[in-house]
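Input record (Table S2, row 248):
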Amino acid sequence: MQPIRVWITPPGPNPWKVIFVMEELGIPYEVKSIKFDDVKKKPMTDINPNGRVPAIEDPNTNLSLWESGAIITYLIEQYDKEHALTYTDLVGKHHLNQWLHFQTSGQGPYYGAAGWFLLLHPEKLPSAIDRYTKQVTRVLGVIDGWLDGKEWLVGDKMTYADMAWAPWNDRVNTSLGVPEPNKFDGFPNVKAWHDRVTGRPSWQRSMELRARLMDEQGLMWNGMPKGTKSFAEYEAKIKAGDDTTPKE
Ligand SMILES: N[C@@H](CCC(=O)N[C@@H](CS)C(=O)NCC(=O)O)C(=O)O
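Output record (glutathione complex):
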């Protein structure tokens, strides 16, 4: 099998859903790591007219695809022949699809918007911050309730649906404006689940790759340019229009 090319910007959470699944399934891939400034330019827009990452090009099937949910569904259908990360019965299959849709429509956009208004928007708009941080908390509450007495979203094993939630949850502190160790306060089932998912060696490998690619682009783990000493300094750079970090 030839490696699948995956287009990413290292700081953004969405590409890491796809890398995580590829790592877990042992799918060979090569990363095309681009700067956030270049997502809305060629050649990225030739691959994804919406100018967002992730996107993949699979030379084995001549398929080019964007939207992380669509990519994960494809990878599972095409390369998870043993059904390691999925279910094939009618109910299981559609419940997995449901949780994946909830992730892409109900987690990513809200977490992204909360982080944007909290940290990156040039003006502080309390009503927008309040609206989106409350949505993040609400979504965490939905998952926490669902996971009560359960280890996984669907069935009795980790699936692609669980994995899809990990990258945004891993940095939910930046969407809530709380210290990292407190990010799951009040949501013990989410915390236990997130620890289970991110305890996988495939997650560790994905995050090692992220650290290397962030370093290559002169970024620190939290997305701030190297050498930025404080968030206040970073905010000043953003106000001056000197920001290159991902927005959602
Ligand atoms: N719904 C898309 C969202 C992709 C997305 O927003 N990706 C971010 C990086 S994590 C991006 O490319 N942002 C570019 C921009 O905001 O211009 C997906 O799930 O793939």
